[in-house]
Amino acid sequence: MQRLRLGARPDWPALARMIAKLHRNTGERFGWASDNWIGLAPQKNAWSNDWPSFFWEFRLLPQLSKANLLEEAKNLNVSRFFENYRPVPSLLHGDLWNGNIGFTPGGPVVFDPAVYYGDREADLAMTELFGGFPGEFYASYNELFPLDAGYRNRKHLYNLYHLLNHLNLFGSGYRARVHATLDRLARAL
Predict the structure, then answer these.
(1) Which DSSP string do the residues of 103-156 spell out, in sequence order?
(2) How far apart are CA 152 and CA 185, in angstroms?
(3) pLDDT class for 2, splitting at 50, 70, 90?
(4) How far is Cα of residue 65 from the mean position of the Cα atoms in its chain?
(5) φ and ψ at 114, to 5 degrees?
(6) Minimal CA–CA distance to 20: which of 75, 79, 73, 93?
């Protein structure tokens, strides 16, 4: 494993370029060839031609089941968030938050991925979840690879996965935020 000299001055536009370049690597289908991990939790994978079905079956459903929240999510219709939006399978970091990035004298680095092919918006949504990245990151990313207007609603759907994972890993401190997100999603669109 390579030792990194972290702590250099942050170059957020360079990180945005790196992530946009990652997201421009596209595949034929959504998913991944093998299961992997999202933090300390197993992350199931398979190949799918349908992104909303993949996201429901392999991301939300296992986390909702583990949290015993299927009844609370029974009205969550994932497909309606994609009625006018067709993402392409982009290579994702999968767990892109402040704790999994750093800056070295040579530039930005990312680590601890939960890699798969999915909607690039899922990565960007995670960057907003726990404190977020500075505005210059988003401005640079959008200049290189503009986001669809519907991202404002879908980001909450994508972050539900990570909130559920945190609820399942770290306990009830995340329950209120999960419920608030489910309520927000029920009112969206």
Answers:
(1) EETTEEEE-S---EEE-HHHHHHHHHHSS---HHHHHHHHHHSPPPTTHHHHHH
(2) 11
(3) confident
(4) 19
(5) -125, 60
(6) 93
Measure CA 186 to chain center: 20
Which residues are within 8 A (CB) of 172 and not within 5 positions of it... i.e. 6 or more apart? Answer: none
Amino acid at 149: A
Judge contact between 112 and 4, C-beta under 8 A: no
- Asked if 24 and 86 count as a contact pair (C-beta separation under 8 A), the reply is no
Ranges assigned E (strand) in the chain: 30-31, 36-38, 41-43, 47-48, 90-92, 101-104, 107-110, 116-118
pLDDT, tens digit (0-9, with 9 covering 90-100), for 83-110? 999 999 999 999 999 999 999 999 999 9
Considering 50, 95, 148, 183, which one is annotated as catalytic? Answer: 95
- C-alpha dihedral sign at 169, 30, 36, 137: negative
Which residue type, as a one-letter code, is found at position 74?
A: K
Nearest to 20 by CA among 133, 123, 89: 123
Q: Which residues of 148-157 are buried (b: 16+ CB within 10 A; e: fewer)?
A: eebbebbbbb
How far is it, in rounded angstroms, from Cα 127 to Cα 141? Answer: 12
CB 115 within 8 A of CB 37: no
The string of pLDDT tens digits covering residues 13-67 is 999 999 999 999 999 999 999 999 999 999 999 999 999 999 999 999 999 999 9
The yes-or-no answer on residue 95 being catalytic is: yes
